[in-house]
Amino acid sequence: MDNCIFCKIISGEIPSSKVYEDDKVLAFLDISQATKGHTLVIPKEHVRNILEMSAETAETVFSRVPKIARAVQKATGAIGMNILNNNEEVAGQTVFHAHIHLVPRYGADDGIHMGFDEHEPDFAALANLADSIAKEVTE
Q: For the motif Histidine triad motif, what are the positions (predicted)?
């Protein structure tokens, strides 16, 4: 895509701090650095997000994530890592080229706060929702 910043990084039109590259995947440091070592893993093929990604592209990209994540963790000394992906604007996606965030974690005071509200589950509603989703899953 002509206006895609990640496509411009892939082509070398825009510089990046690369940490990994092969013929299908590129990983580079995010310029925002939510924490030290914050890395983006992207397919070289332009695809909007995971919701539009083929199984082949997903297999290629996600098969590289553990190796890159371990390298980031080792190089930074992080004690944990969030591996995140946002799909569409409502979910926080701001660059519409699929990418996975590797966010190293250093402790509870590293500036990243994630959590979920605990509540009593409605198991019947969960079962109904699971059935609806399962019916939509196709190969």
A: 97-101
Residue 133: inside a domain: no
10-13's contacts with Cβ under 8 Å and 24+ in sequence apart are 10/42, 10/44
How many whole angstroms separate alpha carbon 12 and alpha carbon 8?
A: 6
Indicate whether this model's pTM tops 0.70: yes
- Domain, as residue range, for 110: 5-114
Q: Is 39 exposed, middle or buried (0-12, 13-18, 19+ CB in 10 A)?
A: buried
DSSP-assigned letters across all residues of 78-101 = -SEEEEE---SGGGT--SSS--EE
Catalytic residues: 99
Residue 110 lies in a domain: yes
Amino acid at 12: G
| CATH number where 15 lies | 3.30.428.10
